[in-house]
Input
Amino acid sequence: MIRSSARMLIPIGCILVIAASAVAQDTAAQWIWYPEDASRDCYKTSRWFRAEFDLDAAPVEASLWLLVDDRQTLWVNGQGPLEEAERTLASLRYDLTGVVAQGRNVFALEGWNGSSVAGVIARLTVRYADGREQIVVSDDSWRASREGPDGWTAPDFDDAAWQPVMVIGDAFSKPWAEHEAFYVPPFYTDAELAARAQRVASLVAQPEQFENDPPADAQLKWINGMPAFVINGEAQTVDSYRGILDPMREHGRRQIALFRDAGIHQFSVYARLDKCWSGPDEYDFSYVDEQIRAYLSVDPDAWLSVLIRIIPPSWWMEANPDELVGYASPGELGGDEQSRARRGSLASEAWLSDTSDAWGALVKHVEDQPWGKRVIAYQPGYGISAEWHYFGSWQEQYPDTGAAMTRTFRAWLRDKYETDEALRAAWADPQVSLDTATVPGIEPRRYATHAAFRDPATERWSIDYYHCHQKVVADDIDYLGRIVKEQTEGHKLYGVYYGYFFGVQPHTQGGHLELPALFKSPNVDFFVAPYSYSKRFMGDDGRLRSLAGAFRLAGKLHILEGDIRTWLHSRDEYGRTQSREQSLAAIAREFSTSLIERAGFWYVDFGPDGDGGWFDDPAVMAQATKLHELATSALQEPREETAQIALVCDLESPYYLSDGPGMKIAYRMVEDVTTELHHIGAPFDAIHLDQLAESDLERYRMIVFLNTTMMTDEQVALVQRLRAAGNHAMVFLWAPGVCSPDEFSARRASAVTGMDLKLVDQWVPGVIEATGDDPLLAGLPSVEVQTIEVTGATPLAGFGDAANWYNPRDTKTMEREYTAFEWEAIDGGLRWAFDTVHNYSDIHGKFAMDEADGIGCDLRLESDASWLEARLVIKDANSAEFATASTTRSRRMRTRHGRVCSPRRSPSRSPAAK
Output
């Protein structure tokens, strides 16, 4: 397959499992863990397990299969740690012949969990001389502890004080049975598999009506200013239920039925492509069929969207090592998608070719089935949590330096520059060539000549790379959409998780900056995003993460993912509401936001531990019924645009910001300013800068330019005309227009704002002191401004004494997460050296401190670290805390460390805006 410029969800961030009490067990072997929420209470730490069992006689053979999410150490009858005899993916087989004996035996197991869910499953098969077999499995007879005390592996250790384990589910439980890294066949018998298949078959039997139903024709239409799915000519509201719970289990089926009975008949079905893809051109989509039919068996009137996570199977990645994502940061590849995931590169031609073949085969297969007539949309998911954020970006691993991306980047440069001479001139690099250009590493991406801003005249290397990097993601999305439109002859809808703006940092590594290009695609109908994770509490604005007005202008649909953690959720996270009343209010707030912004709405339920979903409550479902009726009535009432404020945002400007200081400043400004805009009580439209010219400018009385630091000459001229016309109050933030595609200049920012601006060569505080009698200052409160005049300084007693410092971590943490943590006294201070897997560390000291006007701290970076942020935290005897702002040190940047607090004050007035 040839990649060309024209070629052209389902977050799993939270995966939970259902307690055994809620479901029947299909296998004797059961997933167990210590009774806790592992993803919250057991992060990168161990739990300890013991089990006793009796054998009838001396065995002639004993074989134990053991699978622990994520790692294990095993002792049997005091012997160990034992080495496995065989490994299949994450499942280990131990030969216990000669280790277990007639009578009492004891398993002792340390299980380590990295993150997310945790579990242990075991199945021991013992064979006797007379041919009999005895099976020992993990079940509720096992015991567990949060600590492994001395002697815990000994057979005679008293574990009476340990807790009974929590049974999570049988061997077919999610997520393990659906994750190709976990090999579960050793934990069930052929008879158990057959019995489960028979039970599943009874659950997915289809009504006869599907044979005679017409195939679905689904189109996106705007009716009276509101979006609708028109299915076979009938307009439907865009509100649906998307659960990640197992539709084969009673618990999952109950949640589907609740929404069916509330009058909501749109559902999203989730499945994984790797479970259907066993080899080159070898597919078995029966698993997808079962998921679809399970929904339809609960609600025969359902209309379904099929969400497919398109991660390639392990065999593909092993066969294509040069097609994987590479990271500029060091370390081993793993499974954590936020970090250094082992995944196919989005720039890989091989990945795209093979994946699109499998994707096309899946779509064709579903369309050919009777139940395919009830499918109205297809959605592929890739990247972090299937949301098309580039792997590793959330932890700033600086993707993608792999061979595939390097090839694609060079091809992109060849299309743009054509000759080495043109490339060298653009990059100001006489050595580079189209055949040798590489992906930039950490340093040129994290820093910039002007601290926050890249200079296009000298730093186009990173600018060009990120344009290529972002275009690759959008091209993949568009290409997969074209396949759907071709396979369905345009009768089905296509959408993806994309278009996030708020709450994304850094935008360059993992954002969705090529949304304007996808707006122009005929293949993409809708875009999905959850609402803000930082603004979910009662009293918060519950804002969208997208620029909703931009979607309406483009004629595309935005769907708000309402993953609302109600009071039924087992973990206090992500703004979980604390009561039924708060939950009803939060649901009403988000649903109302979708109506106001003319978006669709999904009830998303990742499900708590236990026997109820997030919305499994009569009051919640009664409200869902009323909200569905409200959305239906909204299609009947003509809507008019009422916002008189335009919030103008830009997706091109992030290319010209450094990943370090630039992105951090932009993120803080965007979040804080938008919060204040929500507080004023007036509606506003959030649109893209490149849409400003086509907007209804006469309707707006105020235009706020939020992050428009890069403007083309045409955009500068438009803003100048608007400013000269004087019809709008105009608010400019930061440095609008300071960058163009070709230069960095304060002159440009002055032309945009009409203010006399200049560049300074140092960091300055982001505070404005204003005095005088200007009417704009009237009524503003007086603020005390503190300064300090240094007349003398006394060294802090004991600061340079190594004995006064200590490391607050325990021994196990240090062994697991640190390779260095040392300190020594030096002249006038302390030298501290550390190396850790974390992106932070700290060292503590205790000192007696005399009363002082301020504290100064001199921090010097001596290692080869390219970036360091430091913060001084002071606690008094009562643990009251004061913390300085973060300061930054690097090989490329020097920062001054401000002094802390002062009694010297002078009155002034400060404007409300920063």
Residues 460-487 form the longest helix (28 residues).
